[in-house]
Amino acid sequence: MSRVGKYPVPVPSGVSVQIAGAEFIAKGKLGESRMPLSGEVETTIEGDKVWVKPKSETKAARMMWGTTRALINNVVKGVNEGFTINLEINGVGYRAAVEGKTLKLQLGYSHDIDYPIPADVTMKCDKPTTISITGKDKRQVGQVAAEIRAFRGPEPYKGKGVKYEHETILRKEGKKK
């Protein structure tokens, strides 16, 4: 039995939700998001709560029960509050700057890396060594953060590279004489 799926998704004030055919639509202060619904589950709106129930007791229906509930929760939270991921850059000469719709990264290579910022995502660099990625779609914000981190992931000896804000790097001891 799904431990996640049995709880309803609370809809905060200021967010309107509706089900149109096989699509869940949420509108809030950050815009509108749409999510396709699985045919394995039944989704209903009762007052200010969204309930998800499996249509049958098959394994696929039980798997989609918790997954659909979590995705609906992310859509509702995304249009109301949004999602933010912070990245830190460590290393001498490593820095980042937002120039228009491009993130310019200097990560120790012979060239600068120009990363085009997607339409639904906003980025800020308060300091040259921090990047704040914000958006209403949790999957897209996480994907953008992972792509930026992949340009120069943190290395274990000096900790140089791009890492998530709360990520801890397991450090290794260097060569011994």
From TrEMBL:
One of its GO terms (biological process) is cytoplasmic translation. The keyword rRNA-binding applies. Signal peptide: none annotated. One of its GO terms (molecular function) is rRNA binding. Residues 11-82, 91-164 form the Large ribosomal subunit protein uL6 alpha-beta domain. GO terms for cellular component: cytosolic large ribosomal subunit. Keywords: Ribonucleoprotein, Ribosomal protein, RNA-binding, rRNA-binding. Belongs to the universal ribosomal protein uL6 family. Part of the 50S ribosomal subunit. This protein binds to the 23S rRNA, and is important in its secondary structure. It is located near the subunit interface in the base of the L7/L12 stalk, and near the tRNA binding site of the peptidyltransferase center. This is Large ribosomal subunit protein uL6. It comes from Magnetospirillum aberrantis SpK. The lineage of its organism: Bacteria, Pseudomonadati, Pseudomonadota, Alphaproteobacteria, Rhodospirillales.
